[in-house]
Specification:
Radius of gyration: 15 Å
Number of helices: 5
Strand content: 15-25%
Oligomer: single chain
Shape: globular
Order of helices and strands: EEHEEHEHEHEH
């Protein structure tokens, strides 16, 4: 997809703040610092629309990005970050659950995992959560540039097995550095639009 326009619409914490636009939405879930912002920036050819941070736990709201006036990427707070109080984590959890279970515009969840390591307990819990609510799931394994090409398939297999993925769920390789997997990702998203 050729991206000609992209912008942040709103950072929301409750449903009444969600945009009214009836465009398809794709929510990005993943651990803190797994590369959600880098994924968004690479997909839309922008350096810093989605803020990347070396400090995990930075995203604390649902950030809605409009792309080509045709779809939203929704960046949800990262999970698994220890330096956040339990109260705060619980609040994020409720906010995320409300969004995932009540948003009609949501077409699919993109679960972002790190290709270099087997998915964490939190990644597995998130995958199970999406499965429980019967939400379409696309698993994006980022940081492919950090692994030799010859080992990609082995790592993808570990990801698929660790998450105990359903056969029909998409698993894509991605690199925010090189753009590897970008066209394939747009191709998969188009199917859900």
């Amino acid at each position: 997809m050729k991206v000609t326009s992209s912008d942040i619409v709103i950072s929301a914490v409750k449903p009444e703040q969600y945009p009214n636009t009836p465009v398809p939405e794709f929510a990005l879930a993943g651990r803190s610092n797994v590369g959600k912002s880098s994924f968004i920036n690479k997909m839309i050819n922008r350096k810093n629309l989605a803020r990347t941070s070396s400090k995990p736990g930075k995203t604390q709201t649902l950030n809605f990005y409009i792309i080509n006036e045709a779809l939203h990427f929704v960046d949800v707070p990262g999970y698994g970050y220890a330096k956040v109080s339990k109260t705060e984590r619980d609040a994020w959890g409720r906010m995320i659950e409300t969004y995932f279970t009540s948003r009609d515009q949501l077409r699919a969840a993109l679960l972002i995992v790190d290709l270099r390591h087997p998915p964490t307990k939190d990644d597995i819990a998130m995958y199970e959560f999406l499965k429980h609510y019967d939400l379409p799931r696309i698993v994006i394994a980022t940081k492919a540039d950090k692994i030799p090409k010859g080992k990609w398939q082995k790592h993808l297999k570990v990801t698929r097995q660790t998450l105990n993925m359903e056969k029909e769920d998409e698993l894509l390789l991605f690199s925010g550095e090189t753009g590897e997997g970008k066209e394939q990702a747009w191709g998969v998203l188009k199917k859900y639009m």
